[in-house]
Amino acid sequence: MIHINMRKHIYLFMLFIVMFSCEVNAQPYTINKQVKGKKHMVVTAHPLASEAGLIILKKGGNAIDAMVAVHFVLAVVYQRAGNIGGGGYLIYRRNHYNIQALDFRETAPELASRNMYIQQNGHINDSVSKDGHLASGIPGSVAGVYDAHKANGTLPWKTLLQSAISYAENGFLLTEKEAEELNNNRLDFKRLNNHQTVFYQDIPWKAGDKIVQKDLAKTLRIIQKYGKDGFYKGAIADLIVKEMKSGGGIITHKDLSQYKPIWHQPIEFTYRDSFTVYTMPPSSAGGMILNEMMNMSETINLHSLGFHTTASIHWLAETEKRAYADRAVYCGDADYYHVPIYGLTAKKYAKHRISTFNPTKTIPSKQMKEGTLQYTSEETTHYSIVDSYGQAVSVTTTLNGNYGSRVIVKGAGFVLNNEMDDFSVKPGTPNMFGLIGAEANAIQPGKRMLSSMTPLIVQKNDSLFLIAGTPGGATITTSMYQLLINMIDFNMSLQQAIYSPRFHHQWLPDILYHEADCFDTATKKELEQFGYTLKQRSAFGRIDAIYIAPDASIEGIGDNRGDDSASGE
Ligand code: DON
Fold first, then answer.
1. Which of 6, 89, 480, 555 has CA 20 to 30 A from 447's CA?
2. From CA 162, how far away is CA 146, in angstroms rounded?
């Protein structure tokens, strides 16, 4: 009898443990890290967004239609970076000879001024450029997605917002990572908002909790009905301006109504003859800096150095340092400052820039200035889409930091960005990502703040080869650099290339950052002997990418560093 009772107790105890651990660790969705297909594919930071995009593709929509669905679903279910209150960049492949770039980066408000974050004592008030109402630029996302659809979409705008509206209206379940991020920011949601927001509750969030966002659903319905005017004019614009007034912000109706995305020719460059990379021109530095680093790497046989050997790490780190020193001095919004795009991306310049490379020693960053141009003439998210018509979309979008300014527009239910911190708020002083800037990236009304975002599309001999991008602040461009090098020079599969640990050097601070298990002990020792200071950091970004094989089969890979998930067939 005692024996049976004991067994019963043990059983109940075990059941309790199982139930408890299920509740704590419950992942409410299936996350597909690798999906193979033949028709179309969507890879995003959240399984619900990937599925929403796939549904549109299955209905016969093209990659731009799927982009609209994905972008708005991310704004609902991935609130820390998916957004309507932020901005981003699109690389769009209509066909192999028509590839375009759309800049829907935020702009500085008309009342912004060069020294707005500098106090009387000359020090920066850096909490103001990162937190709260003064940290926001004019959001570009709604106009960007709308203009992309107007020019290239095929399904009606209204249908494309339906999934997002229903997740906002009826709620969705939090993943473990989302619950954790909301908890990490809960005190800021309280401190920076003078109204009750759905992001804050008295008890911590846990995986499987449902979040309903009625105000956001209302906002999305207005955008569904009136398009971009529904956001930049009328009731939503009134709520944004009211929110600004209540918290000392400066965005006006005029700022909102004047916001315009800009279509550009992408930065286009070849690598080792058969690959052509299409990526973002300014206002992002990403494309130019990636181009400069790839140009330097093209001058040697990287493959022969071996993957993650001291020699290849040293080479890549030295190219990164040189390119980031150039970024700090030369890069800003090209509509406001003369950015020497041609000079920075010239193959001859790269050869000259890397000519000081010493194979057994790193040059201290203090001694490494920007090059002389002689040849003139932590939260973001990325999604990649390919459709069955051969069209492709590569979008990186952001609020800047996790949940941006942490200000939620009262009555409208969405988060505003803290992108103003991407300007060089005081020349020579590092921003949130430790990046230094200069005159080129000083604050000016209407100007776009410099970005590292590097969405890209790669063709191999004119056929679609890769669609990729990542979040990660300053590490975005070096993550894209190492992804391409891993695939092209070290012959890795897309999954290997993404999953391999990454490292990063941004010139200043003079530190070679790396992920866990990136270097073995002997390599670390050798790098230190070369003069590097090494520092381990948490994961760098989350690459969501699609590879198209020579037989036209498609592979979608979600980075193992997050909840990123692929959907396709
Ligand atoms: O535009 C940029 O470079 C930054 N605002 C990106 C921020 C970011 O990636 C944060 N995510 N991890």
1. 480
2. 15
